[in-house]
Amino acid sequence: MECATCKTGCQKFGLTKAGTQRYRCETCRKTFTPAKALGAMRLPMDEAASVLHHLLEGSSVRSTSRLTGVDVKTILALLVHVGQKCKRLMEEKFINVAVNDIQADEIWSFIGMKEKTRVANDAGMLFGDVYTFVGIERESKLIVAWHMGKRSMNDTDEFTTKLSRATSGHFQITTDGYAPYKVAIPNILGDRVDFMTLVKKYGVENLQDQRRYSPPMVMAIEYDTIIGEPVQARACTSHVERSNLSLRMSTRRFTRLTNGFSKKWHNHQCALALWFAYYNFGRVHMTLNETPAMASGLENHVWSIRELIEESAKF
């Protein structure tokens, strides 16, 4: 046990009236009781880890409830509690990370209802279409920054600001042709980046061959240098698109044509924070044979779900 004030070792110092272990710092002599990783929740740690593992492998909340025997309300409370901690964990750990090649993209989902229905029913902005902006480092596969919001100039600025805070040095960045990137990245990242856009041109197939959710064939790729001197051979968005696929397949809220979509903005955000923290620290990438955090030098081992809960509780 380490003292939060002076970062030195502590010794056990009796129990509280409730039976909780107390500690005393050997340097500053302060006595304290460490905060519980799950806060006021009475769920056993092993059971909490099992619940989160099911959610991170694509199970819905109700499916997880049936598999684990944990009540739906408890599962949602656990998701919100740990998700909030994971969001702060990434904000604190991902500052001035050295990167070489960043790819940025947005992935679509919706909350409560789709945008057309939201507009027709005059629902609030916390419903309807929502986009998750993702920035991934090409070599380590590390998700260095993410942002959940609408597909707007303001949210693009917020995402780019988070990307600027999370990274250090000079690097190349590639995005799709979404116009707000062409304003936000030069304004916020400036001469720190070599910026190129990549736009894929798709062919139109015969009507009898069209499938609503099958992507058409890529017929051409257009490159456009925005600032700096980006290397066209390195310009690519395939890695961030592949990470978006992992997110969609491993998070039930993103699965199309189901009723597992998010009903609340905050729950959706917490589910994303949990996924990105797990992806970086606890999920071994098949190409790397280690986690992205290990590949980037931020960690030296794979985190278990329990360790993810305990480490995020420190923030």
Descriptive notes:
With 315 residues, the chain is α/β, with parallel strands linked by helices. It has two domains: 1-34; 35-312, Nucleotidyltransferase, domain 5 (2-Layer Sandwich), CATH 3.30.420. Helix 1 (45-56) packs across helix 2 (61-68), helix 3 (72-93) crosses helix 8 (265-281) and helix 5 runs parallel beside helix 6. The chain has helices spanning 45-56, 61-68, 72-93, 115-120, 153-166, 181-188, 238-250, 265-281, 292-295, 305-312; strands at residues 10-15, 21-25, 31-32, 97-98, 101-111, 128-137, 143-149, 167-168, 171-175, 193-202, 218-227. Helices cover 36% and strands 22% of the residues.
Salient structural properties:
single chain; 315 residues; alpha/beta; Nucleotidyltransferase, domain 5; 2 domains; 6-stranded mixed beta sheet; 3-stranded antiparallel beta sheet; 22% strand; globular
SSE arrangement:
Layout: E1 10-15, E2 21-25, E3 31-32, H1 45-56, H2 61-68, H3 72-93, E4 97-98, E5 101-111, H4 115-120, E6 128-137, E7 143-149, H5 153-166, E8 167-168, E9 171-175, H6 181-188, E10 193-202, E11 218-227, H7 238-250, H8 265-281, H9 292-295, H10 305-312
Parallel strand pairs: 4-8, 5-9, 9-10
Antiparallel strand pairs: 1-2, 2-3, 5-6, 6-7, 10-11
Helix pairs in contact: 1-2, 3-8, 3-10, 5-6
Could you provide a short overview of the structure?
By secondary structure, the protein is an alpha/beta fold. The chain has helices at 45-56, 61-68, 72-93, 115-120, 153-166, 181-188, 238-250, 265-281, 292-295, 305-312; strands spanning 10-15, 21-25, 31-32, 97-98, 101-111, 128-137, 143-149, 167-168, 171-175, 193-202, 218-227. The strands form 3 sheets. It has a 6-stranded mixed beta sheet, sandwiched between helices. It has a 3-stranded antiparallel beta sheet with strand order 1-2-3, with no helix packed on it.
